[in-house]
Amino acid sequence: MQITDLGRHRRIGANSLLAEIGPFRVLIDAGLDPKSVGRESTPNYDLLGDGPLDLVVLTHCHLDHLGSLPIVCRQHPEALFVTSRASQMLAHRMLRNSVNVMKRQRDELGNVDLPLYTFAEVDEVDRALVGLTYNQPRSIERNGEELTFTLHRAGHIAGAAGVSFVYKHRRIFFTGDVMFGDQATLDGADFPIESTDTLVMETTRGSKGRVPDRTRESEVERLISTISNTISRGGCALIPVFALGRMQEILQLLYNARQTGDLPVCPIYCAGLGMDIVDYFDAISRKVGGVHFRRSVLKQLKVQPPPPFKPGNSPGSKGIYVLSSGMLVEHTPSYHAAAAMLDDHANSICFVGYCDPETPGGELLAAAHNDSFLFSVPDHAAPVRAHIEQFDLSGHADRDELLQFANSLDPRAIALTHGDPEARGWFFDELLDFNPKLQVHDLLPGEEVQL
Ligand SMILES: [Zn+2]
Ligand SMILES: [Zn+2]
Q: Minimum mean pLDDT among 351-360, 368-377, 425-434: which range?
């Protein structure tokens, strides 16, 4: 097999891997880099050359995996496009949102490349994308040869899949983004342990080990008690969340805590794309399974839209604000809420997912108490007085679990992707430590690797 990382940077960005397996050309994911804008944010599709694509596999609907799929669909209408059934339901909504975001960026930044695709092209993806059931092998043929592929549940978010290929009795496995443990709204990964020739794995959490004595359960308890204490002292609790998966998970955790009496009765405010995704999760949990979330949770929690936010004015209605984006990106509801709440020490801002250090969320996490923090868009500086806390409720497997999984497949070769250099470095060393004969490759942007 030959594999080429079409991403432009050695980090989690525009994920897209070209796998050439015998005569077959397969693309795994077609993402957009959240840290770049316009053409720079896409994978380098020039590297695909003129040859046809046989198959495009979408592992899940985060935009760093899905966001440039309409471009591939436009350039390679000959390919078979597949994903899981749940992702097939979610992709259209996520891509439409992406068009709206790009149109807004075009107006704000004057970037004439934007939007990179249209609503009509998003509809085209919807027509092309085939939703497959997990664990059911499919085959394609070329020149009298056969490639069999199977999707496997990957946890992480609703619909996420790892994909295995069998070509001439050799098994190749791509983890995609994976989480082995169960979450409140989602079953964990169900990856078969089978003898594997080549493994391509994510490395997101490679640079940090698990904090001893910190479990998912204890982190949920710490989150609920932080929120409860904030409400009891008359403050607001802001939880910045990703719209897809994280917002629904947090609502379910709040609901569970209300049921057990661990969370005081108070208003709960939500806004943004995540509220729409709620309907999709409801449908997926009824029709597909693996997701445990019902729309009725909104009613039971009496979720309402937030009041308008003014920089420096803590909202009059004290309560819990579950708002996207997860990293406090400019122009999003969570960003405006933070600008309103930051200078009041009664309030708390609770981060529940990864924050890139270069985003406002990452910068706020790095700031010290009483530092002046600049919200650049309304041009508002505020002292950091609110309680800032981060909780480890990641949707990615921790590095020891992933290492153990990789070793258990006993592969001949492993390719590392989807992580910063330090994270890949840890896996590189540990994998060789366990099996010095293993071929380990750190996939570099644009480099063709023979495996
Ligand atoms: Zn993901
Ligand atoms: Zn990812």
A: 351-360
Ligand approaching nearest to the C-alpha of 34: 2
DSSP letters, 3-15, are EEE--SSSSSSS-
Query: 156, 178 in Cβ contact below 8 A?
Result: yes
Rounded Cα distance, 385 and 61, in Å: 36
- Residue 238: is its pLDDT beyond 90? yes
CB 393 within 8 A of CB 249: yes
Q: How far is the CA of 380 from the centre of ligand 2 (A)?
A: 32
In the predicted structure, residue 443 carries a pLDDT above the cut 90: yes
What is the 156 CA–ligand 2 centroid distance (Å)? 9
- Tokens 């933070």 sit on residue: 338
**Closest ligand (CA of 395):** 1
**Are the CB atoms for 407 and 431 separated by under 8 Å?**
yes
Cis ω on the peptide bond leading into residue 333 (within 30° of 0)? no
Please, what are the domains in the chain?
A: 2-208+395-450 (3.60.15.10), 216-390 (3.40.50.10890)
* Pair type for strands 372-375 and 348-351: unpaired
Q: Is the per-residue pLDDT at 166 higher than 90?
A: yes
Ligand 2 centroid–CA 177 distance in Å is 6
156 Cα–ligand 1 center, Å: 7
